[in-house]
Predict the structure.
Amino acid sequence: MPRVKRGTHRRDYRHKTLRRAKGFFLTKSKLNRAAQEAVEKALRYGYVGRRLKKRNFRSLWIVRINAACRGADISYSKFMSGLKRAGVDLNRKVLADIAVNDSAGFLALIERAKAALQAQVQ
């Protein structure tokens, strides 16, 4: 089996790790092993954080829609059910933006949802 001298590959790997660890505290930004562990942990936190961000924004949108619905005497779940029955295909991000910035438009959506719910009852 031939002898492998790692040379530039090893140096590039370490430089990449230390570049990513720039700004970390003490040996985590200076020594390769400590930096590698810190970088791996930071990347895991970043991965999880990106998913938590999606979860947090969705719950924020739901809270905003619910607050606007309660002002018009309808619950969030009834409103969403009414929109689906009425064939209005808007996601929660857009609905939350309409609820905050365009109250007249949101009231029109609430009326459509209520009408669809009434039609379903009869």
Summary: The mean pLDDT is 95. The chain is about 75% helix and 0% strand.
